Amino acid sequence: MAEADPLTINPDLTTPAPANPQRAKLLTGVGVAVLLAAVGYGSWYALVGSHHVTTDNAYVGGDTAEITPMVAGQVAEVAVSDTQAVRRGDVLLRIDDRDASLALAQAEAALAKAERQYHQTSATSGALTAQVGARTAAILSAQAQLSAAQAAFDKAQIDLARRRKLAPDGAVSGDELSSAVNAFAAARANLELARAGIAQAQASAGAASGDLAANRALTDGTNATTAPDVLAAKARVDAAKLDLERTVIRAPVDGVVAMRAVQMGQRVAPGTTVMRVVPVGQLYVDANFKEGQLTAVRPGQAVALTSDMYGADVVFHGRVTGFSGGTGSAFALIPAQNATGNWIKVVQRLPVRVALDPHELAAHPLRVGLSMDADIDTASGAPRGAR
Q1: What is the pLDDT of residues 129-146, one digit of tens each?
Q2: For the chain, which domains are there?
């Protein structure tokens, strides 16, 4: 039996089905759109995208002021509470100042005593000067007495010699000779006494001169306000005044009170942190970028930031101010030890400090620790050679 010809059975197999013109146009349009999108994205990346590095590993930071008492004492008043906004100079807490007031009174009394002692020392110098003059006069008097004693001794010696010469002839009685001998002895004793008086007067004058020199050494070149003892007493008064002022603790910066850890009646010691003041108007952002993203990043470049707190509708504008001295792992309490046989490379992140606009912070306040998204425009700011 002869086989049937397929062409005679189905004549439609000899002619192809006509193409769908709408489908062809749709595919062509899709291809053109994909091509244009690719070209557009490539152009955007070449002109814009390649000049931006982004990260969502960024957090708000601030130089928090720790409030620590400088003097010990019992807390008399706590004027603020957590989350309270304060201005610089506002009273945060007061420490019982009675002990400090007593210490100041004692220091002021010691100062008054030192000033009186200086005036007394100055007056003593005048008295000692007068004593030196009196001792000088006493020396002159002793010298005059010595001269008189010397003259009396010479006369008594002559009288004794004359009577001894006449005694053998009986011209002088024994009583008269004895009187002459006694007068000579008395004159000689008076001469020795006069000589001793001169030595004593000279010694007294020397002692008075020494006392005067020692007293003048305490006052020469100084006055009632520059004497060393007075200056030391004034320093103690200033220290007592400072301790009294420190019983009132004030806010060092504008900010918000945080972590208050003190209650009224509690006794505090110097150096103990009782609270913190966060300067919410001077916050910054630490953005942790991967090491491969930092090739073109330089200080001074513009940064756009958004916060999870406000969303993408609020954009903060900042500037790169610098780079950390090391990665986070380098400064960890227990740094990673990579000198092992099973070492696996981990991409490191380096903190980049970003300064925020104070006006934007005032309009949209942030808090320390909030998450941020950071986008650095590497085509702005400092030239490529700066670091």
Answers
A1: 777 777 777 777 777 887
A2: 65-96+246-278 (2.40.50.100), 100-241 (1.10.287)
